[in-house]
Amino acid sequence: MNYVNPNFVLMVEGLTVSFDGFKAVNDLSFYVEPNECRVIIGPNGAGKTTVLDLICGRTKATEGSVKFKGQELLKMREDQIVHAGVGRKFQTPSVYEDLTVFENLEISYPKGHGVFGALAFKRDLEVIERIEQITQTIFLTDALDEKAAYLSHGQKQWLEIGMLLIQDPELLMLDEPVAGMSVAERKKTAELLNRIIQDRSVIVIEHDMKFVEDIATRVTVLHQGQILSEGTMEHVQADPKVVEVYLGH
Ligand code: ADP
Ligand code: MG
Predict the structure, then answer these.
(1) CA R_g for the chain
(2) How far apart are CA 83 and CA 106, in angstroms?
(3) What residue ranges define each of the domains in the chain, with the CATH number in brackets?
(4) Residue 187 CA to ligand 1 centre (angstroms)
(5) Which residues 6+ apart lie within 8 Å of 30 measured at CB?
(6) Ligand 1: does its nearest atom lie under 6 Å from the Cβ of 198?
(7) 156, 148 in Cβ contact below 8 A?
(8) Which residues pair with 203 in a beta bridge?
(9) pLDDT digits (tens, 9 = 90+) for 12-67
(10) 215, 47, 93, 174 alpha-carbon torsion, rounded to 10°
């Protein structure tokens, strides 16, 4: 892609990280549009998780640029990046087991400052409304008062997505969200992602090709820290290079 679309939510250019001389991500460039669901696929060790670590500021890049709505993320701290509107979900679910679904969402609601009296009351209503809206999106309406410990693995994953959604990120990044889920849960997660990209962009790392087909706007195939192929699902699936290093196995 050589054109520059000013509407890109995320512009990654020449991104490189070197771990003791080993380039886990090597001169990577890709661009994400609003309301796009970009799926990153590729063999183990291709550098997929590292790309998300670089974008969210957890790992420091050696070179390159990551612009989110025009702001250079590589110069920002992890908390500043979250505040700017980039949410990130890690591979293992991390919800508070002893808290209910409602409470997990409540503590994830972005803190305002200095609200008192009637204003605080109005805010409480606002929070409750938002939590109800989110629990519908993540299929947990009937489990609002359930402790997270009693949820299934899939439901915990959805709850964690909900905890990110309540912060209303413009870019949401998910690392293998359907790993360990049943076929039915995968289907519902695809439905969930298709719903949430109405209001934001999503980057998903995934292996399950059926799931990828259900959600991807575009697919980026990573191999040895570089792009092997990129385009629609049909395009990358038909690419002989992709079949050779990834899909053929
Ligand atoms: P993927 O998610 O595609 O399976 P990763 O991004 O986790 O791959 O890893 C890419 C490569 O970078 C692997 O060879 C991994 O061992 C290496 N790597 C990742 N993080 C670090 C680190 N902090 N230090 C050294 N090597 C790392
Ligand atoms: Mg990974």
Answers:
(1) 19
(2) 17
(3) 38-51+85-247 (3.40.50.300)
(4) 29
(5) 1, 12, 38, 220, 227, 230
(6) no
(7) yes
(8) 38, 173
(9) 999 999 999 999 999 999 999 999 999 999 999 999 999 999 999 999 999 999 99
(10) -30
